[in-house]
Specification:
With 876 residues, the protein is mainly alpha-helical. The protein has 45 helices and no strands. This is Mitochondrial group I intron splicing factor CCM1. Keywords: Repeat. InterPro entries: TPR-like_helical_dom_sf.
């Protein structure tokens, strides 16, 4: 007994049932050439051979289409080309050659005949299906594709711009439909189908029925590109703008959404919309949908869930549809073949509560017998429901296979199972792989995987029945469901010892084993790795979840080299442009590892992997460049910046913006990275996408100040001064730093400039820099006097700066006394903050008899270094 076929001896094929009405009533998209294009040929023949001068865009199209073609003088369409003795292939070849030649004026001419191009185009498109019944082979030749694209774009462009040439919407729809049906897979990288669909969509005079049919055709194109989500969105739009679904339009839509790559999204959506409109799809339509969804359900948990949800939803909303015996048989067979215990359990629970099996209409005793046997096996295999099985058993006669399953279910002692197998054999039951797989599933209802594993060895030795791959997969999944990873691993190794050949169809199970090992055996990374390599000998690659789990494990041990090898094995050697959201468990661990690592080499290796395989979000660049600067690797940050620039030129991505420039100038200046500052400044001068602003120029000026390049800093100050708004507070602070390096007189001139500024009033930060400049040159008492009379309230940072930069002990004590008396809360807060107050003092003993200026210089450099590393500026 098998469960792979539905008896349909008394029924018509499903496709004829579902689409009989659709073929009769649906709006016609294609009309035979003899009817459709006769007027075009007549139109061409009767028109004077007026020529239209091609524009520049036409010339480029023609040049592209004829790039590899040489001119040959051939006749245009005539009766000899349509003669019956010419082969179809020769005829299509001649049509294609005629179309190519009509795209360029003959020798001695300088214009195109667009009516000839249109006639040749339609003739070729009509002939292609006759030449190649297999639609996937019709446009394999690049010359056909290039010529078709060029000719269509030419006539569309001419019809828009010229009143002397027209192409009707009927002709456009016919071209569009023929293109999709002849070669949507080969044209998936072309914009021509999308262009035609856009023209059709914008036609105001097009009926809703024709727009509906044309829009459905576009689903074929999306299927060829494997665009599930886009197809789902298009179908939603189609159903929103179209009238309520009739039986004919529903069947037409079902036909168009049943293509391999889009059906799992679109078929459930179509049925849901039909129900919301108060309609119930026909029984034949339901069975057609079940057959279409079944194809991917066997080996993919994702598709299993789609199938299970579809069955359950339709069962709840339209139970009457499931009164069909053929539909019930189809559903039960699908669940048994896929071994989807979760989906089958949900369906059987609903079935038992809703369906009266006795009340079903059976067309033959064979169908009745088949349904009851399927119900018995499904209940024993997925639910272990004894009472339901007993009621079903009373409805059928003796059957060796059913008796065998029932005996296994009722046997509490695992030691007696071998004798049950022997009895079944003696009763004439052939223990096929399918029977053996069902037997193991039934035994697992009452026995542990360990007991079953030991039983399999006994059966192999005593009965000569070897376990199938499905049996090992079932046992492994059962062990994983109980979180017994050690047992699951043991089952896997046992299967290898028995010569089991795992395949890519078992990838989900093997991926589950890898994920479970990565999560529970983190200290045994070598064992995990060996299991992974064993699995890859069978499957070549592992799935996304397994790859992500291995990556996480390897990175936890800082095995960045192994991570690189893992991604090369699973994602390929070549660079990719995956969306990070499509594989978040791979991209974000890589990026976060690079961001968290204090080892610059490991961080760089992980980051380059994320860039190699993913199209990183723009926001990630700022953070990662800042991190490498903090690791004292500004050269890496500069390299990332260069890659951003190059990428924006080649792919059109967003180039570095002002925020990125400000960050890098600030960080490069902080660590004195001269090469980076010079290169970055050169890039900025050539970058037309970033405007010069005062905040950005401030950072550039500060970077050159850090290099002690006074002349460059002064040049930038001059540029800032030319702005309508003029310098801001930060500009004056940076320039006072520059002047501080020169002389106190230059500081005073700059301070006077600030006081005279019409747009900037000195604030606390300006006074702080002014106090530091005075202390830098040894004017400690003057600095304290300025602090006492400054018109703005000194901040905690200003008080700390005055104290720290005062390098004579009694002057430092005076600052402390003033701060305590006038600003006690701020002073006490500084005392409580570790490292806030420095105790640097000039060496009064001066054993080397250095000048005071030289003594100050050494301490000033220490203070500058402290300020640079302890209180870094934040770019926002």
């Amino acid at each position: 007994m098998t469960y792979k076929h539905v008896i349909r001896s008394s029924q018509q094929p499903l496709s004829s049932i579902v689409f009989r009405t659709a073929a009769r009533q649906a709006p016609a998209l294609l009309v035979p050439a003899a009817q459709k294009h006769a007027h075009i040929i007549r139109e061409y023949s009767s028109k004077p051979k007026s020529r239209f001068s091609p524009s520049g865009i036409y010339s480029s199209f023609v040049k592209k289409a004829l790039a590899t073609e040489s001119w040959e003088s051939v006749e245009n369409f005539d009766q000899s080309q349509d003669s019956p003795d010419r082969s179809l292939a020769d005829r299509v070849s001649s049509y294609g050659r005629a179309l190519r030649e009509s795209l360029a004026a003959p020798p001695g001419k300088d214009s195109l005949d667009f009516y000839l191009i249109k006639a040749n185009l339609l003739k070729l498109l009509d002939a292609l299906p006759q030449c190649h019944p297999n639609h996937t082979k019709r446009l394999k030749y690049s010359t056909y594709k290039s010529t078709l694209e060029t000719s269509i774009l030419l006539i569309l462009k001419e019809s828009e711009s010229s009143s002397s040439f027209t192409i009707s919407m009927d002709e456009i729809i016919n071209i569009y439909t023929l293109l999709i049906r002849n070669g949507s897979a080969d044209l998936k990288d072309s914009a021509i189908i999308s262009k035609l669909f856009s023209v059709i969509q914008t036609c105001k005079d097009l009926s809703q029925e024709r727009l509906f049919a044309s829009s459905l055709e576009f689903l074929r194109f999306l299927d060829a590109q494997g665009k599930e989500l886009e197809a789902e969105k298009l179908l939603q739009w189609i159903l929103q703008v179209s009238p309520a679904l009739t039986e004919a339009s529903f069947n037409l839509a079902l036909q168009h959404v049943s293509h391999p790559n889009i059906k799992y999204k679109c078929i459930p959506l179509l049925f849901e919309t039909c129900r919301k409109q108060g309609n119930v799809p026909s029984q034949a339509a339901l069975e057609f949908a079940l057959m279409a969804l079944k194809a991917g359900q066997l080996h993919s948990p994702l598709y299993q869930k789609v199938y299970s949800d579809f069955v359950t939803t339709n069962f709840i909303n339209t139970p009457s549809q499931h009164s069909s015996v053929s539909a019930l048989i189809l559903i039960l067979e699908s669940f048994l073949e896929s071994n989807d215990s979760k989906g089958a359990g949900k369906f059987l629970a609903l079935f038992d509560s809703v369906i009266d099996v006795e009340g079903l209409h059976f067309k033959s005793p064979e169908l009745k017998d088949q349904l009851y046997k399927l119900l018995i096996v499904a209940h024993l295999k997925f639910l272990g429901s004894k009472s339901m099985v007993e009621s079903f058993l009373s409805k059928i006669g003796q059957d060796p296979e059913i008796d065998f399953y029932w005996s296994l279910h009722n046997e509490p002692q695992i030691s007696n199972v071998v004798s049950i197998f022997e009895t079944a054999r003696s009763n004439g039951l052939e223990i096929t792989d399918a029977v053996f797989n069902n037997a193991v599933d039934i035994l697992l209802q009452n026995h542990t995987p360990t007991e079953i594993q030991n039983l399999l060895s006994t059966i192999s030795v005593e009965l000569g029945i070897d376990s199938t791959m499905e049996v090992y997969e079932t046992l492994l999944n059962n062990a994983l469901s109980k979180n017994d990873v050690e047992l699951a691993l043991s089952i896997f190794h046992t299967s290898l010892g028995q010569g089991a050949l795992w395949t890519a169809n078992n990838r989900e199970t093997l991926d589950g084993l890898i994920v479970a090992m990565c999560e529970t055996m983190q200290s045994e990374v070598v064992k995990v790795f060996r299991t992974y390599t064993s699995i890859r000998t069978f499957t070549k690659t592992v799935g996304y979840e397994a790859t992500a789990a291995l990556l996480k494990l390897f990175l936890s041990y800082d095995y960045v080299g192994d991570t690189e090898q893992l991604l090369e094995d699973e994602l390929g050697l070549d660079s990719q442009n995956f969306d990070p959201q499509s594989k978040p468990k791979i991209y974000f661990p890589l990026y976060n590892y690079a961001l968290a690592s204090n080892n610059s080499e490991n961080a760089w290796s992980a980051y380059t992997l994320s860039e190699k395989y993913f199209d990183s979000p723009y926001e990630s660049y700022y953070t990662i460049m800042n991190h490498f600067c903090n690791l004292l690797r500004p050269d890496v940050a500069l390299l990332i910046f260069k890659n951003m620039r190059n990428r924006s030129k080649t792919s059109g991505s967003k180039p570095p913006d002002e925020v990125i420039y400000r960050l890098l100038f600030h960080e490069f200046g902080k660590c004195g990275y001269a090469q980076g500052i010079f290169e970055l400044h050169t890039f900025f001068k050539m970058d037309i996408s970033v405007d010069a602003t005062v905040p950005l120029l401030n950072e550039i000026m500060h970077a050159h100040y850090e290099l002690e390049d006074v002349q460059q800093a002064v040049n930038i100050w001059t540029e800032i001064a030319s702005f309508p708004t003029g310098p801001n507070h930060d500009s004056y602070n940076i320039m006072m730093k520059v002047c501080t390096k020169v002389s106190i007189e230059d500081v005073e001139r700059m301070w006077q400039t600030l006081l005279q500024s019409p747009t900037v009033e000195p604030d606390d930060s300006n006074y702080r820099q002014y106090l530091i400049a005075n202390c830098y040159h040894g004017f400690y008492l003057r600095a304290l006097d300025i602090a006492k009379v400054m018109p703005v309230e000194p901040s905690k940072e200003t008080i700390a700066a005055l104290y720290n930069w005062t390098l004579i002990e009694h002057r430092k004590e005076s600052v402390a006394k003033w701060a305590l008396e006038n600003h006690p809360e701020k002073w006490n807060a500084l005392l409580a903050e570790p490292g806030a107050l420095k105790t640097y003092l000039l060496d009064e003993k001066n054993p080397d008899n250095d000048s005071e200026a030289h003594l100050r210089k050494g301490l000033n450099e220490k203070l500058e270094l402290d300020g640079r590393t302890i209180v870094p500026q934040v770019i926002v």
